[in-house]
Amino acid sequence: MFFLLFVSIVMLQRIREVAIAKKNEKRMLAAGAYEAGASHYPVMIALHVAFFISLIAEVMLFERPISPWFLWLFMLFLLVQGLRVWCLASLGPFWNTKIIILPGANVVKKGPYKIIRHPNYFVVCTEILLLPLMFQAYFTAIVFTILNFAMLAVRIPTEEKALEEATNYRMQFKKGKTSDIVE
To answer: Which of 29, 58, 63, 176 has the largest count of CB atoms under 10 Å?
Structure first.
């Protein structure tokens, strides 16, 4: 019961974020923005939906218990949620689940974006590992961590290329700086 309640809260948070993204997308498109990488977006959504299905199925079908490390994993999860909120707040109306590019816009380089290029992807990668580990769903943790890295191997270059072509991204994130950590 606790597991289903916990995962339901996380899924509701994701649904709320998609609603925020839709609102931001609409506003940005009206201001002249365009979408890049649209072809891989449905695959990314399918990956995230499949993640939750796999997590629920593995925990329920195999009756996985809560991890003995749950408290520590949960505290780390809460820290990651704080970083998620910081990412959303820092990008404000530019935050999106899609790659929405507003030509001529200045790239946001505040909050966690001062430290690393893609902190929101770091959050997602960490969650995809933490959530299953909290409930000893090791298959889901391993498989979806690998699949997510494969997705990001497509998404990050697509996003960076679009930003370099239409914004001041290259000037803000000069290649080779030690502070440029791509998650």
So the answer is: 58
